[in-house]
Structures are given as C-alpha cells and as structure tokens.
Design brief:
Elements: E1 7-12, E2 17-18, E3 24-25, H1 32-43, E4 47-52, E5 65-68, H2 72-84, E6 90-93, E7 100-102, E8 120-122, H3 126-133, E9 138-144, H4 150-164, E10 168-173, E11 178-183, E12 186-190, H5 193-203
Parallel strand pairs: 1-4, 1-6, 4-5, 6-9, 9-10
Antiparallel strand pairs: 2-3, 7-8, 10-11, 11-12
Helix pairs in contact: 1-5, 2-3
Length: 204
C-alpha cells in the first residue's frame, strides 16, 4: 500500500469512565505510541486523524487532524462518526479503552467518610464496532497483557484478532517494552516503539 494521501485514523491514550460528578476510573496509558505512529505516518504522506484521550503531552504535528476525548462514551461516538464516513483506508486502534463501567453513576460527589463498593459491568468493545461500521478498512488493533509469557501473549492476541476481525494485531508488554506484530504471513518481534512504527509502516 502506497501511504501517500491515504487516510488513516488512529486512536490513542487512556479513556475515563465516571464514578460520580468528579471521580473517574482510568488507566496508565500515555498515548505515546499513537502519537508516534501519527507523526511517522504523516511523514509518509498520509492524511492522519488522531483521536487522543486525556494524555498530558499532546504536542503533535500541525498537519495531524487532532481530536480530543476524555470519556469512553466520547471516544465511541467520535470513532463511529469518523469510520462511518467510509473514507479511511487504515484504522489503528491503539487507545487503552476502559473495559468496565460502574453499573450506576452517582449524580453527586460520593462522600469519602465511609467504605464504598462499586459494581462494574463490561463495556462494548469499540474495535468490534469499528470493524462492523468499516468492514473494508485495514484494521490494526492492540492487545496489552503484562505479566504473562510471550507465548501466552501471542495466543491471546491472536484470539482477540480473530474475534474482532482485525487484519493485524500488536501484542505488547511494558517494563521493559516489547511488542509482537502479528499479521497474515507471520510475527515480527520489536523492542521499541520506534521499531514498531517502522515495521508497521513497511507492512502496510
């Protein structure tokens, strides 16, 4: 695929789900991988839209169409709106999306004077929704599973890829960083985000 003028959608960063009017559940994602990918794809002449969550460092190339979100519901709405246009050639879903939400959001600030139990329920997978809405786009998804063996990581990533109908899956670990690019012809192992970007661009 020649990437010049190809339209690429990238999701990146953490997502929030509200507990009450001031508190949220989040994760430790920084959005660094998605920002790096966006920068590298722009250098290849691609037209990139970046949906970026509440990450602290959001300095990106001015040619990138940057759209911010904070909450899961905002990411879901923006992602579906973007892919529904039918004009994206590649979708790279690297955002660390919240898997659970409180079954009931409190409409006031919860008092901190007594113990609190919060019942969580699973959220729909945004990657599944994007695949249904844009069945022809190249879909690259991410699977983060720290604390397990490489073989187990690759196995779980392949299962997630098959379930989502993705064309490619990036199985990654943190501390130290390691990723496996799993595609139709094999697996490429990388040990840095720069190497990940380089190989992903070459594969696409």
């Amino acid at each position: 695929m020649d990437l010049k003028n190809k339209r690429i959608l990238i999701t990146a960063g953490p997502t929030w789900v509200p507990i009450d009017t001031v508190r949220v559940i989040s994760n430790i994602a920084t959005g660094a991988t998605g920002i790096l990918l966006a920068e590298r794809f722009v250098r290849q002449g691609a037209k990139v839209t970046l949906l970026l969550g509440p990450a602290e460092d959001c300095r990106v190339n001015k040619t990138i169409n940057l759209k911010r979100f904070r909450f899961y519901a905002e990411l879901k709405e923006k992602a579906v709106k973007e892919v529904r246009s039918g004009s994206y050639d590649v979708i790279i879903h690297s955002a660390a999306v919240s898997d659970f939400t409180p079954i009931k959001r409190r409409r006031v600030k919860i008092t901190s004077k007594k113990p609190l139990n919060i019942r969580l329920v699973p959220l729909p997978k945004i990657v599944d929704i994007m695949r249904r809405v844009a069945p022809r786009a190249k879909l690259v998804m991410f699977k983060l599973e720290p604390g397990i063996s490489d073989n187990a990581l690759v196995k779980r990533a392949k299962e997630a890829q098959e379930k989502a109908g993705a064309d490619m899956v990036i199985a990654n670990k943190i501390e130290p960083y390691r990723a496996f690019i799993i595609y139709e012809k094999g697996i490429i192992s990388v040990k840095s985000k720069r190497a990940l970007a380089y190989n992903l661009i070459n594969l696409l």
